[in-house]
Amino acid sequence: MIEDPPLLTIKRRFERPAAEIIRAFSGVSVSQVVDAMGGRGALHHAIKPLSPGAVTLVGVAVTCYCGPSDNLALFGALDVAASGDIIVAATDSFAGAAVTGDLVLGMARNKGVAGFITDGLVRDVVGIEAVGLPVYCAGASANSPARNGPGTVGFPVVLGGVTISPGDILVGDRDGVAVVPRLDARTVLARLAAIKAAEQDLDAKVRQGLEMPEFANVVLKSDRTRFVD
To answer: For the whole model, what pTM was predicted?
Structure first.
């Protein structure tokens, strides 16, 4: 006989990056973080800030798997989350109902949560904007979820095409969200210095009138380019 699973399976303890590492990602753009990770690590383009404006986000992932049309696991994540954490709710990209609304997100804000990310939908957009918590999602729907489970908290989830583990660092802006694996954070930070310097150098050249970067000129003038006109 197959036994019914528990309504919630929660792993409360996981390693978080040192506070100074998290702070070091503040003010860094998502595109720079992605470049420092070899051009990958951003969530699917459908997952964007719910509201326009200067939305930025940096924090540690607390993951939950809600599944489609259910949000019981979200309350488990709310129980586990510490101040400065970001709740990540995986729904298998379910588009038939919202996973949460302004009231639960207001509770998250009250607990000091820094943001909310889901591959699903949310509702009560005006209320969420009043809460003031950064929310990244795939859209909005007034349809409401159930609270039946089963769900998990504190385990790796796949969201937006990227595996997110509890303790990973999340960086968000208007371009979307980048996921920095906890164990790679120091390496990514070390690469960011060179990324920023190269970007600033190229930006200065563009402002001075640059029309074509040198590497492209080399390719265009070499035998690796064939013109057929």
So the answer is: 0.92
